[in-house]
Amino acid sequence: MSSRLSLSGAQSKVGLYYAENSAGGTWYLPESTAPSTHIVKTPQSVFPDQTLNEALCLETAKLCGFDTAEWTLLKLDGGEPLLAVRRFDRIFPNPQEKLISSLPAPKRLHQEDFCQASTKKWASRFARAA
How many secondary structure helices (H) and strands (E) does the chain include? Predict the structure, then answer.
């Protein structure tokens, strides 16, 4: 599965659109410039429990009173779980307006991390302090 995400970080990820329905919900791979609603992270062979660890950290932060993104673990047949995190940089200003394949179209909110804002190179994000 490929994606056009321009998301920083070391973990493999794909942007998907989730639409709730009477069956619980359906996942879609956005086409062209259609926005995603979730970032879905996959475990890596080097760090097989990475998605579980991130879910644990998100839940711990939430229980400590911090605001966290909504998340869920997706279990696939025989594989390790995927971590689906609802994007906080998407809003639905008019959910009644159906624009993309009869689904509500989220609006993108611009976000940058500190390295992007300071024009630091990606590799320097993980450099150790001297």
Answer: 2, 9
CB 51 within 8 A of CB 81: yes
- Burial category of 87 from C-beta neighbours within 10 Å (exposed 0-12, middle 13-18, buried 19 and up): buried
Which amino acid, residue 85?
V
Averaged pLDDT, 40-48: 87
What are the tens digits of pLDDT across the range 55-105?
A: 999 999 999 999 999 999 999 887 889 999 999 999 888 767 767 677 888
Instruction: Provide the residue type at 82 as one letter.
Output: L
Structure tokens belonging to residue 18: 């989730």
Q: How many CB atoms lie within 10 A of CB 82?
A: 19
Domain positions in the chain are 13-126
